[in-house]
From TrEMBL:
Residues 14-35 have a biased composition (Basic and acidic residues). The lineage of its organism: Bacteria, Pseudomonadati, Rhodothermota, Rhodothermia, Rhodothermales. It comes from the Bacteria. This is HicB family RNase H-like nuclease. Residues 1-42 are annotated as: Disordered. InterPro entries: Arc_rbn_hlx_hlx, Ribbon_hlx_hlx. One of its GO terms (biological process) is regulation of DNA-templated transcription. Coiled coil: none annotated.
Length: 77
């Protein structure tokens, strides 16, 4: 039962994070944009490109969503 409880709690946290991330992505879509250039491994670039194609969105949207979900976990604020 301990594992089930932990799984349920983790699922709830993931859902909350996803909802918060979605809200942040929607807010970001309304903001002015700045260019961000980064050299990434070809395999990562291909993975982002494939995910964007799979979902029918621009690579920019995949990257904004990924950064929006990642940064709060590693921010000192």
């Amino acid at each position: 039962m301990g594992k089930e409880g932990n799984l349920a709690e983790q699922t709830g946290r993931n859902t909350e994070k996803s909802e918060e991330a979605q809200e942040q992505v929607e807010k970001a879509a309304e903001e002015e944009t700045k260019r961000l250039n980064a050299n990434v491994p070809e395999s990562l670039h291909q993975a982002v490109r494939m995910e964007a194609a799979r979902r029918g969105v621009e690579m920019k949207q995949v990257m904004v969503e990924a950064l929006t979900e990642y940064l709060p976990n590693y921010s000192s604020e």
